[in-house]
Design goal:
about 150 residues; 7-stranded antiparallel β-sheet
């Protein structure tokens, strides 16, 4: 079972600033507080994520391992997140586009549920979508707070 989810928001920040924030895996824990679905991130070794860099998100389902799959300068950052048994596979693409007075951030996710999670697939998908919305809202708040005035 695979579902898509897309969320867009406009921020006052310049596209370069938004892109830099998305790539800074070490700062995600600073602006994204824990929730029922998200219990923190263990970042990889680098500050500015590049293709192939890894991190671990901690969730009620256990560890979800993330890999940076794209980091096109100034345009997008993409990740693949998987549980160890591939019961949950999420592909996330963050696009950054210039907009009047700032930029538009669009988060698109492809949520795949299989194996042990298939019986509760609709619930897992709904929870991931809700967490995507929360993440996008917190990201916008963080970027807007640090945008030059």
């Amino acid at each position: 079972m695979t579902r898509r989810s897309t969320i867009s928001t406009t921020t006052e920040a310049a596209p370069e600033q938004a892109y830099a924030c998305l790539r800074d895996l070490r700062s995600h824990g600073d602006w994204l507080p824990r929730s029922a679905s998200y219990r923190g991130t263990t970042p990889g070794r680098t500050t500015a994520a590049s293709i192939g860099d890894t991190y671990v998100d901690h969730t009620p389902l256990g560890k979800v391992r993330g890999t940076v799959t794209d980091a096109s300068p100034g345009r997008l950052v993409a990740f693949r997140q998987t549980t160890d048994d591939d019961a949950l596979v999420i592909d996330v693409v963050h696009r950054v586009e210039p907009a009047a007075g700032g930029c538009t951030l669009t988060r698109t996710g492809r949520i795949g549920v299989a194996g042990r999670l298939r019986p509760v697939g609709p619930l897992v998908t709904a929870l991931v979508r809700r967490e995507n919305g929360r993440t996008t809202a917190r990201l916008k708040e963080h970027i807007d707070r640090s945008a030059p005035r």
